[in-house]
Specification:
alpha+beta, about 35% helix, seven-stranded mixed β-sheet, about 180 residues, globular
């Protein structure tokens, strides 16, 4: 019994070390997806294959969100689903909006396909990240979507300008009256 407990603690520590506390793991290179098959893609192609859904907006009635992931892979053995988002830019760490985006995709997939995804992948030109489907990711997506709905209804929302929020924004130092650098 004690050996099982020790083994469980060791596995937990390894898992925490690999993924870190925030559930984001930087991969050395993009996954090869050897045992995975594409079941959904937003990518345009002339040669459409059976068993793949192309470009359909995925809507979650339960969470009131919708989206179009770049790809959804299904594991050939376990049936696990994996949303993949491909970005054109470069970064050393995923942008907040990109994390919210794949977090929303994980919730949408949970609602549509009936079970929770364990992770998602974001692929940038220079880096690739595995994002775990954690409670905090789900809560951030739901809180953000609630704030957006409230803002659409009332037309009011507090500006949240800061260096961290503004540094990657195309409006920074241009048209934005809330720009961190314009204060």
């Amino acid at each position: 019994m004690i050996y099982v407990l020790i083994a469980a603690v060791i596995i937990l520590l390894i898992f925490m070390f690999v993924f870190g506390r925030n559930g984001i793991k930087k991969l050395k290179k993009p996954p090869k997806f050897l045992f995975w098959k594409v079941i959904y893609t937003d990518m345009y192609t002339k040669d459409k294959k059976d068993g793949i859904t192309y470009g359909k907006i995925l809507c979650s009635e339960k969470y009131g969100i919708q989206g179009k992931p770049d790809m959804i892979y299904k594991h050939r053995i376990t049936g696990e689903l994996l949303p993949v988002e491909i970005k054109s830019g470069k970064t050393d760490f995923p942008h907040d909006g990109d994390l919210l985006q794949v977090g929303a995709y994980m919730l949408i997939i949970e609602d549509i396909y009936g079970y929770s995804t364990k992770k998602a992948v974001i692929i940038y030109k220079n880096n690739c990240f595995m994002i775990r489907n954690t409670r905090s990711v789900r809560m951030r997506v739901l809180e953000t979507s609630d704030r957006m709905r409230t803002m659409l209804k009332t037309g009011e929302e507090e500006a949240n300008s800061s260096f961290a929020n503004c540094r990657n924004c195309i409006c920074d130092q241009t048209v934005c009256e809330y720009s961190y650098n314009n204060e």
